[in-house]
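#random but structural
TW: two for the price of one
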Amino acid sequence: GFLSLILIICNATLSLKVTTQAAGLASTPSDNATDFNSLIGILAMAALFTSGLWYILMSWAALKSGQLPKRLNYLGLTIGAVSLIPILGLIALLLSVVWSFWLSRVLLKDN
C-alpha cells in the first residue's frame, strides 16, 4: 500500500510538472515532454500493479482468517486481478471505491 502511494504521488508530481511545461510550450513539442510522458505512464502502471498486489494479498489473508465477509474478499481478489491487466485499470479503480465503502461499513458496524 505504501509503495503504491509513493508511486501515485510521484506520478501526480510529474504530471503537474509536464502540464505546466506544456502550457508554456504548447506549439513546440520537445523530447523532454515525451520522456516525462513515458515516465508518467510507467509510474501509473507501477502504482496500479502494486496496489493490485496489495488487494490480492490483503484479501487472501482476510479470506483465510475469516474476519471479513467472503464476498468482500472475493471483490478484493477481483480488484487485484483486474489491476494486473493494464487495459482494465479504470475498472479496478471504480471497483476499489465500492470495496472501500463496503470495508468501511463492515469495520464501523456496531456489534
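TW: number two ↓
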Amino acid sequence: TVNVRSRLTDRYAPLPETLDQAGLLEGFEGVSRSVDQCVSRQLKLDGEFSSGKVEVNLTVGPDGKVSRLRLPRPVRQTTFGACMQAHSSRWRFPQFTGKPVKASKRFVGR
C-alpha cells in the first residue's frame, strides 16, 4: 500500500454557500482512494512511479459529479493517468447550488 499525504489548495474562487471545505474534503476521500489504487497499479505494471507529488485539479458540477480532471503533464499519459481518468467518473462530492467549482488537492507519496 502507498502512503499519501494530501493538502487541499485554496487558490480558486470562493465556494458557493451550499458547499464548504468539509464537503470538498469529503469528496476528495474517493479521489484519495483512487490515488492509492492508481499508484499501486503504476508500480505493478511499470515498476516505478517517478512523480513524488501529484496535484489533482478538477471541476465539480452542482450535481456533485466531476466534469473535468486535469493532471500534471508528466503523469497524463501514464498508467497512473489512465487509471485516474477511469476512476474520475466514480467520484462524488456533495451537491450544491450555483456554478461548477474548481478544486485542487496535492498528493505526496512517502
